[in-house]
Amino acid sequence: MTTTSPPRVTRRRTRTAVLLGVSAALAAAALVLRGTASVTLTAAASAGAALAGGLLGGAARHRDGDHVTWRWIGVAAWGLAAGLGGEAVVAATGGPRGVAFTAGAALTAAALYHGLVHWNRIRTELSDPGDWLNGVSAAAALLALGNLLVRADPGSEAWWAAQLGLVRLAALLVALGTAGTIVTIAGLRRDLRAWAFAAGLAAVASVEAAALLVGPTTAPRSVVVAGWAALVLLLAVLRVGRARALPPREAASEDTTSGAVVVMGAGVGILVVDALVPGDQPVSSVLAAVAAVGGGARVLRLVTDLAQLAAVRQEARTDPLTGVANRRALVEQAGALASRPRGALLVVDLDRFKEVNDRFGHAVGDGVIRSAAARLQGAVGGRGVVARLGGDEFAVALDDADAETAVAIARDLLRELTRPIGVEGRVVRLEASIGVATTAVGARDAAGLLRRADAAMYDAKQAGGGVRLYDRESDARAHEERRLVDALRHALGDDRRAPGADRHAAGGDRRAAGGDRRAGHGRIAVHLQPQVDLDDGRVVAAEALVRWEHPERGVLPPAVFLGLAEEHGLMGRLTAEVLEQAARAAAAWDTEGQPVRVAVNLSTSCLEEPGLVGVVEGALARSGLPADRLVLEITETSLMHDPDRAVEMTHRLANLGIGLSIDDYGTGYSSLAYLNDLPAEELKLDRSFTARALADPRTRAIVAGTVELAHHLGLRLVAEGVEDRETEELLRELGCDRVQGYLHARPMPAEAFARWLRDRSTAGRPHAPLAVEGVA
């Protein structure tokens, strides 16, 4: 079987063979022309360097992350081969000695330096093009120092011989210094290749220095030539062996700055010494000046880069809207606080800030946030750090404060925040909830301290605002609340779905699969309570109250979890679930020959959801329930939160043929304007009026007036909370249309209510279309 090498590999092998052939030809020509021992050694060293270059080129196919470094070392080997080959030819023909070899050695050192710089780059990601400026400056400083020590007349043969040796030595020392630096900062202490690399450079540099001490000559000494050839051969062997590569590591930018400072200082020092030492050494002075300027430029660039980096880091730690610290900076500050015996963290939440955006727009909202941040900074002063956590939430880290001091500062902040804020001609009044946690509560890190302050803030918010100090009892309540919210999310299935998301599109199979996932967290169920017509005693409606059948805590009433659902964005999903169950129940009663009418209560957040119409249409389509048998109940509070949007949404729903009912009438704003604007057909009188109607004449008068108002507007009136015959009789006398309460039945599961309705029908008791209320 015949195999063919890839074209790229073939070209590399061809190039290697040609270069090896050229080197061998040069060596042979040198031997033929003048076969002295010096020439023979130089030619043999050239062939050895070419062999090293060939080995390094052949090993370049191993891509282990360091291959670019070793590719440049291969270039260094070929440069040395060319220089030694040229030196052999020049020596054989009687030309000027040392120039070709020095040029090749300088090229070799430059390639080695570039390879080392690249090695440092892939190991630490610190190097940049300025490293070349550092290398040239360092070489100039070394040459200046060498010329200062070698007191030869410029232009003389001894001076030229010294320059050749100094160039080679300076190049080696720069490469050696770079190798030592990357061994230190790039985590290569365990990499034998790096140590061998540095050792080889040090050995050849020692040979060059010894040759200079003995006496510089233009013709390179044999030991020097052999040392350079041995260096590249050693590197070729190191590459072929391929030691185990180590993972990259981080390094500080100061590591690269120190080398530039040393070079700049050396240049300045040499200039000073050169000025003090008798004798004219212009070359030394020029080289020292080059080193000082180059090092200074490098330091200046590094300082500029560090300043830019500091600015970027500051921006990354600053909130762009307010200019105060952001969450990242706050977490760092809180982490430092957690380890101190005295310190406190305050979490500040602006209550009902969403209403500011909804009413005045986001431009005014942004202005309010900026003003709030400025007031917090002014009140805190130098006692701590103010940060914006996001949205309308801030935090204050106090360096040296006990619980009493922290609470006092929190109250100062609350007073500042509740003062009226003027923005773009608008006056905004804010309320706030502030939670305080001190380091004495045992938090071990930033997350623990922040969680405790956050728990105290929620405790304050549930109490209606103000300042609350963290305590373990409130934390236990907050922890239990978080557990309850997580369980509710699982019970609802996909808690990330918005009300507009149709997660029931797949029908019963998908619903069954969802039920399996929710089994461990209970299920959401609908319990129904009948409504009775006061004229003929018929069952005409039923209110469906949502329940959570919790696996550990039993059946939970809505008061336990509705607030959590609203606060954590689950109300839309919960409403969709109740709507699905209510619609299916109504459709099931319809198949039994008992046509019913269904109503579902909508919260404020549901009315603001653009996808609400799609959710309602989807539930109707899946259950097969006609739209005219669905009623949606809306509270006064939800209507007044954003009247324009509420009116628009209710009209869109009414256009589908769906009925509308106003729930809990009399407990909200009781604005008569929306009664005229909304396409409603029913008012539901809150139970607080029903319970006092018998004993309180004023309440009785309010009920009578409400009945008359509803009838004049063409609406029916339903009274909730009827528990005795006397109250029912009074409501009948006042003209109320329907009643609901324990007098007739307590809330019961949908299946039990269906049986109750069938039994009532079998017993000959009249009934009428059934209405079901949702999340209430």
TrEMBL record:
InterPro entries recorded: Cyclic-di-GMP_PDE-like, EAL_dom, EAL_sf, GGDEF_dom, Nucleotide_cyclase, Rev_trsase/Diguanyl_cyclase
GO molecular function, one term: cyclic-guanylate-specific phosphodiesterase activity
Keywords: Membrane, Transmembrane, Transmembrane helix
Transmembrane parts of this sequence: 39-60, 72-92, 98-119, 131-149, 169-188, 195-213, 219-238, 259-277
UniProt domain EAL: residue ranges: 503-761
Recorded coiled-coil stretches: none
PROSITE patterns hit by this protein: EAL, GGDEF
Record-annotated GGDEF domain positions: 341-472
Protein name: GGDEF-domain containing protein
Lineage of the species this protein comes from: Bacteria, Bacillati, Actinomycetota, Actinomycetes, Micrococcales
